[in-house]
Sequence to fold (110 residues):
Amino acid sequence: MFYAALDVSLRSMAICIIDHDGTICLERSVRSDVSDVLLCLAGFGQPIHQVGFEAGALTQPITCGLTEAGYDVVFMEARQVAAALSAMRNKTDKHDARGIAQILRSGSSN
Fold:
């Protein structure tokens, strides 16, 4: 199983895909555009079990696009994500995406 996490911002988005053991399989930054996200996920070449990200104002179009493409989308509350990532010393979009992927994999988002 593979899990994809997105750290969404206005212009770009960090994507991290991990496997069931938590090993990072892909990290990439793309424009915050549905077509770029879908291209990246499809280009990974393996079925993705879930795609997760922090719910926010910028995520609605991405949610619609991912859902229409058949992905299982998981929203995470900002407080939940902030609490889980608070122990991180190096706060970057890339590291946030890694942390969100681990939350998704562990099932803490449900």
Remarks:
- The mean pLDDT is 84.
- Strands lie at 2-8, 12-19, 24-31, 50-54, 73-76.
